[in-house]
Amino acid sequence: MSSIAKxxxxxxxxxxxxxxxxxxxxxxxxGIDLTxxxxxVIKLLRDVHQEFQHTPITxxxxxxxxxxxxxxxxxxxxxxxxxxxxxxxxxxKIAGLPKPTNCM
Length: 104
What we know:
Elements: H1 20-29, H2 36-52, H3 58-69, H4 76-82, H5 87-94
């Protein structure tokens, strides 16, 4: 794995260190093989973080997914299928964003 600095939970210490290669490495460590559907969510997460300077709570993000990616993708089950167990934690980690504040 690369030498990019991460915290003890695997989140990037410096958001500027993110790249698609870093995302692939983090995803592999999480047991996720990134598909176009994953990249769509990752890019939206990064755009939302850039726009609002924080990561929204799951419910708000799922609504944004529906608004921006299509109604069929605006469901929490869709996010859960892509990023099992802890969808916001895993998707934010892979997107190179800080751990969501509502996740302990």
